[in-house]
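[audit] Reproducing an earlier prediction to check determinism. Same input, same settings, fresh worker. If the tokens differ from the archived copy the diff job will pick it up downstream; this log only records the rerun itself.
[audit] input (517 residues):
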Amino acid sequence: MTTEKTGNGNLSQRIATNSMLLFVRMLFITIINLYSVRFVLAGLGAIDYGIFNAVAGVVMMSSFLSGVMELSIQRFYSIALGKKDKMGMNEIFSLSLRLLFVIAVVLLVLFETVGIWFLETKLNIPVERMGASRMCFQFAIFTFVISIMQIPFSSALFAHENMEGYALISTIDCLLKVFVAVLIGYVMIDSLVFYSGGLLLVAVIVFLMYSIYCSRTYEECKYRSVKNALLTRQLLSFSGWTMFGSIAKVCMIQGNTILLNIYFGPIVNVAFAISQQINNAFNALCNSMVLAMRPAMIQSYAGGDYKCLNQLFAVSNKFIYYVLLMVSLPMIAEMPTILHLWLGDSMTAQIVLFSRLIIIYVVCLAMNNPITTIIQASGHIKYYHLSVESVTLLCLPISWVLFKFGLTAEYVFVSLIGVCVLTHFIRLVCLRHYYSEFSISEYLFAFCLPALLITIAGGAFTYFVHSAIHSALLSLVVVFLAVPLVVGTLVYVVGLTAQERVAVLQMLRRMSKKFVK
């Protein structure tokens, strides 16, 4: 019994360590990416920067497909790894590589025909920049194709919980892109062509790093001719229903963007677009934590270790929510100062409000990840996505009705947050239906109630500190230092079980010893 507890405790500590590693790495990369925008904008100029985003955007509309395929392949990898089926892992790698090659070829044909037609006839590009735009489009196509072919290798890293390898390669990827951005304007090549070509070169380097590292480290990452019609159908079916969920989320955001434009004009679209930048940054931070937890949860389900899975589910809920709470409370309080430092005089009261509300939405949405992971492990995704995403799409008619009755633009977030909370309860019901070991009442009393108390107390403390300091910059520094410390203390006292507190202390001791050494 002691050994089992110790094993599960070590697993939780390893996952927490991996999550923190990925979280810090993503925070570092997010800051660098935001800062590198200055170099890109300065090097390309406003017109070429707009052209690049428009041209590359035609290709990146399909980027959700790569995310769906990556999630699907990770799931099947983790299932096979949980069953210790090495032959099955090799089949998954080989079939997924072949399947992604077919998808890449189909997309290549579509981009080279329909994509070029759209570029030359629909996009508003100055005639003198059309040649460079065509080159940029070609580079963007092959960059995207290479990123798709990289998925089986990166998925193997996640399945094996090799977060150090992923963090290293992705950090190199980020730094290389910044290096390309810095060089814009210093080379004797058209800036738009150089930047898009440089991103292609970075994609090739990163692909080679993933493929060489994984093929040498994991024996299953070697292609062989495999015929498994059942596994192919399972991959396609899982990807298809997961894609339905992704498309529903994209439609919800883009649909609300159109509604805001119709009822309030382009000025409100600017505020919503900036809030989406914050949305993307928070989602990246959240996904970095989920990446470390998902493989272990799927492997526990596949191995029938439901006690371990329940522990991982509880830990992942607390870890995701409380870490995001430590970041979101200071962000919400200090949003005017943050936006002023970022946007300067372009900041408006509406942008501040939208940015605060989008953080609440993202935190609510993030709590779906542990639930979705168990459903994906069980394979019951068809009715899960049908139930959840059908309600998700109700966000658009709700927003339309609110605007039709004359309510202001910020009520779009009432629709977004309201639907998000409603679908969360639907997810809980689905989880209880497909996973009998789950208890809704235990979830509410063991996690939701302490989380609510900590949120109220942390929010009150944040408001008090923010109101007590009249200097904007001093308030920014003090709030970002004090609030995570106070919220962390509240979490330790109120939000964790006795066993989780012991695990946290052990992890802190190990980290302090490494720091001293």
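[audit] rerun output stored. Observation attached for the diff report: The mean pLDDT is 82.
[audit] end
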